[in-house]
Design a protein that fits this description.
Elements: E1 5-9, E2 28-33, E3 42-43, E4 50-53, E5 59-62, E6 81-88, E7 95-101, E8 104-113, E9 121-122, E10 130-135, E11 142-146, E12 159-163, E13 171-172, E14 180-185, E15 192-196, E16 200-203, E17 211-212, E18 220-225, E19 232-236, E20 246-250, E21 258-259, E22 267-272, E23 279-283, E24 288-291, E25 299-300, E26 308-313, E27 319-324, E28 328-333, E29 341-345, E30 348-354, E31 360-365, E32 374-375, E33 381-383, E34 388-394, E35 400-406
Parallel strand pairs: 1-35
Antiparallel strand pairs: 2-28, 3-4, 4-5, 6-7, 7-8, 8-9, 10-11, 11-12, 12-13, 14-15, 15-16, 16-17, 18-19, 19-20, 20-21, 22-23, 23-24, 24-25, 26-27, 27-28, 29-30, 30-34, 31-32, 31-35, 33-34
Length: 408
């Protein structure tokens, strides 16, 4: 008998923050104000955990999407540091932070944590002007870039370094000496993209070899990647030339880049969902822009007029957070509607869905006309290469229907 299997997606309840907004845009609420400048925030993939640099060398962690913060997560036995960038593993337990010790760019550091930021250890890395860091989903492959776009400090403070063991050892990459500004990673850590003040470089082998992308020689300040590393979004910003303040996207890992129509004047940060369809860009001149179709159409959000410096997205793109001004944090949440995919792999069937920003459980039924849906007993596994939950099961000799239901 030929097996027929059908998948459905259902929602048990709806949840939406009630804040100001416009039709077609996101809805935002202000959750925090820390009263210090140039705050940058970073998400775990489900959007529940946030991490950010704090004042006087502290690192702040939130486990409820930014509504409350733990301010005691300062790296142990470290000099006071100006932390510039942080990154999470998929589960949020493994973290990496880069910054200046004693606020001196000539004495910089990389620290890692394996317990969600409770304690930190110093990595053995050279003194570079570390400005950005990214992590694979499992936290093993790390990449850090260093550069001084002002050219005030010498080129020997620039570079790209990678680690394949969670920061225990770092290797210098064979790249041109450039003032690097930002880096992003695919979920498996093999496809990386790095921006500099005049160029964008990509690698498909975890940094062994890099290629220059065909992009305008703009001041590239931020870049983000989909889970598979194929869909990229990059922002260029130049305070003196609006023509150089643009958003570009790529659907082929950087081989070809397309200019997006976005009225940004001073973009500072971009972020992407795992599939690359949902993007967010923020502007130091007070704009927040989102798209749900990979950049084909962008919508300006109605939110407080703040010089935004940072934006992050959960894997499903339904939970967003931005920071700016005197370290004000705004969050946005829309109810996820995850798509349940099904594929026959040999003698098995694989069900998969992108990690949602709301807990969902898998259910099954042999008859759509009944209400007798049963929770699936097999626990899903996290695929670190795709940021998807997966369940594998033998092919059924009878028709079987599956759906996702939001958990309490």
């Amino acid at each position: 008998m030929k097996t027929r299997q059908i998948w459905l997606v259902t929602l048990a309840w709806c949840f939406l923050f009630t804040t100001e907004g416009t039709c077609g845009a996101q809805y935002w609420t202000n959750t925090s104000n820390f009263d210090y400048e140039n705050m940058r925030i970073f998400f775990a993939v489900d959007g529940s955990k946030l991490i950010t640099p704090g004042n006087y060398g502290s690192i702040l962690v939130s486990t409820n999407a930014g509504f409350t913060w733990n301010t005691n997560n300062t790296p142990n036995n470290t000099p006071t540091s100006a932390w510039l960038a942080l990154a999470f593993s998929a589960g949020g337990n493994r973290s990496v932070a880069v910054g200046f010790e004693n606020y001196s760019p000539l004495k910089s550091a990389i620290y890692t944590s394996t317990n969600g930021g409770t304690s930190w250890i110093s990595n053995n890395t050279p003194n570079k002007w570390w400005v950005s860091v990214a992590s694979s989903a499992d936290g093993n492959k790390l990449v850090a870039v260093a550069g001084d776009p002002s050219n005030f400090y010498p080129a020997n403070t620039w570079g790209i370094y990678t680690s394949t063991n969670g920061g225990t050892a770092w290797n210098s990459n064979n790249v041109p000496s450039k003032p690097w500004t930002c880096v992003a990673s695919s979920a498996d850590g093999n496809k990386l993209v790095a921006t500099s003040a005049r160029s964008i470089y990509t690698t498909t082998n975890a940094g062994l070899t890099w290629v220059s992308n065909n992009v305008p020689a703009y001041y590239w300040v931020s870049v983000a990647s989909s889970a598979d590393g194929n869909r990229l979004v990059a922002a260029s910003s130049h305070a003196l030339s609006l023509s150089q303040s643009t958003i570009y996207t790529s659907t082929d890992g950087g081989a070809v880049w397309t200019l997006n129509t976005v009225p940004v004047s001073y973009p500072t940060s971009v972020a992407s969902s795992a599939d690359g369809s949902k993007l967010i860009a923020v502007d130091r001149n007070h704009g927040i822009y989102t798209t749900t179709n990979a950049g084909a159409l962008w919508v300006q959000n109605a939110v407080a007029s703040i010089p935004w410096t940072s934006a992050v997205s959960s894997a499903d793109g339904n939970r967003l957070a931005v920071a700016g001004g005197r370290a004000e944090v705004y969050v946005s949440y829309t109810t996820p509607t995850p798509s349940l995919s099904i594929a026959n792999i040999g003698s098995n069937t694989r069900l998969s869905w992108i990690i949602p920003s709301l807990p969902f459980s898998l259910q099954q039924n042999t008859d759509l006309t009944t209400t007798n849906w049963l929770d699936f007993t097999n626990q899903p596994t996290l695929n670190f290469n795709t940021l998807e939950y997966e369940v594998a099961l033998p092919l059924s000799p009878v028709n079987t229907f599956y759906r996702l239901k939001s958990s309490p």
